UniProtKB/TrEMBL annotation:
Domain of life: Bacteria
Residue ranges occupied by any Multidrug resistance protein MdtA-like barrel-sandwich hybrid domain in the UniProt entry: 69-215
Pfam family, one: BSH_RND
Name the record gives this protein: Efflux RND transporter periplasmic adaptor subunit
Length: 377
């Protein structure tokens, strides 16, 4: 019985070995599956060279073109006026911004004017006797002399004798002394040189003001300037009078400015040149941050593409016979996201969007929009 069982097991082992060997031979002779080629679908664009405007992006803060920092040249108490000296207060041209109490100084000015009047009146008898031909003009001067008005100019002297006589009586020196005092008296009142608005007030009514003290800041809110720094590469391209498109950070408001000045020197540290853009708009405020787009030049026979399509060795991918290839190009301007290129032949088919892992010789298929049929609708 045992021999029978062993015989059966031996037969089964032989049969299994035969079947296994047959399977190995069949697998060895079986052809390997051919791997299907992967064809990537890419977005392409057909090139047509044109004139590309090179627009330089810059930014900066607005500052009032006409600004006045108010300082005191005399000392005294700030007198209340018709308007409160507060930030945001508007004034017309010629209106008083600040009036400083000048009572004591005004009295000294009147005293000097009175002394001048008396000096001229004292020489009138001598003029009548020695210089009868000039007596009338000096008499008219005294008649028109008003202590409550600005001291009039002395009569013009027509001869050396008259000049020596008048000067010898210290009348000329007294006259200029009075004019000097009147000039200083005018500094007790600070008037608005132009219509504008007060943006900073450092004193209030009743404050004792000292000479040299800063009192506030005053601006004209109708005209603003923006200072922008441009690369020295475009120093020769910026032109005074060129229009500039401006917009806020949210891109919700657009303004039109004009290049009014271009600095004649280049900053040695940053190698940039400063341009000043003038802009007018009722909605603008000092300190606003704006972005500017300056039209530097027109580049002929060029194209503009995304910067990520330009390879490191100044080449770009083109599609030829369903294969990727590279051509050499000449970049002429870089912006944050775009690059302007030359030497790209018309009719070339280039990639419109970057393809990860792209290489020369890669098999691609240009993407085509299929028209929607009535059945698909």
């Amino acid at each position: 019985m045992r021999n029978i069982i062993l015989s059966i097991i031996g037969v089964l082992v032989i049969v299994a070995s035969f079947l296994f060997a047959k399977k190995l031979i069949a697998d060895k002779n079986k052809p390997k599956p051919v791997q299907a080629k992967v064809v990537k679908t890419v977005f392409t664009d057909t090139i047509q060279n044109a004139t590309i405007p090179i627009v330089i992006a810059a930014n900066g803060n607005l500052e009032a073109k006409r600004r006045l920092e108010i300082y005191a040249e005399v000392q005294g108490v700030f007198k209340p006026g018709s308007k409160l000296f507060k930030p945001g207060q508007e004034y017309k041209a010629g209106q008083s911004l600040i009036k400083i109490d000048a009572s004591e100084y005004y009295a000294s000015v009147q005293s000097s004017k009175s002394n001048l009047y008396n000096s001229i009146a004292a020489i009138m008898p001598d003029l009548r006797l020695d210089f009868p031909d000039v007596f009338d003009k000096w008499q008219n001067y005294l008649t028109n002399f008003n202590l409550n008005k600005t001291t009039p100019k002395l009569p013009e002297m027509t001869s050396d004798k008259e000049n020596f006589f008048i000067t010898g009586r210290s009348i000329v020196s007294n006259y200029y002394n009075v004019k000097n005092l009147e000039q200083r008296l005018a500094k007790y009142t600070i008037s608005a040189p132009f219509s504008g608005i007060l943006t900073e007030a450092l004193v209030t009514e009743g404050t004792l003001i000292r000479s040299g003290q800063k009192l506030g800041e005053y601006i004209d809110p109708s005209v603003y300037e923006m200072e922008v720094a441009i690369s020295k590469t475009y120093a020769n391209l910026l032109k005074v009078g060129e229009d500039v498109a401006l917009n806020n950070l949210d891109k919700t408001e657009t303004y039109t400015g004009k290049v009014t000045r271009v600095n004649g020197s280049i900053d040695a540290t940053t190698q940039t040149i400063t341009a000043y853009i003038e802009v007018k708009d009722a909605n603008l405020k000092e300190g606003m941050y704006l972005e500017a787009n300056l039209n530097a030049k027109q580049e002929k026979d060029a194209i503009e593409i995304d910067r990520n399509l330009l390879l490191e060795n100044q080449q770009i991918f083109v599609v030829k016979d369903s294969l990727l290839d590279v051509i050499d190009v000449k970049p002429v301007y870089f912006s944050d996201t775009k690059v302007v290129l030359k030497n790209v032949p018309n009719g070339s088919i280039i990639l419109k969007k970057a393809v990860p892992g792209a290489y020369a010789g890669m098999l691609v298929k240009p993407f085509q929009d299929k028209p929607v049929t009535k059945d698909q609708q």
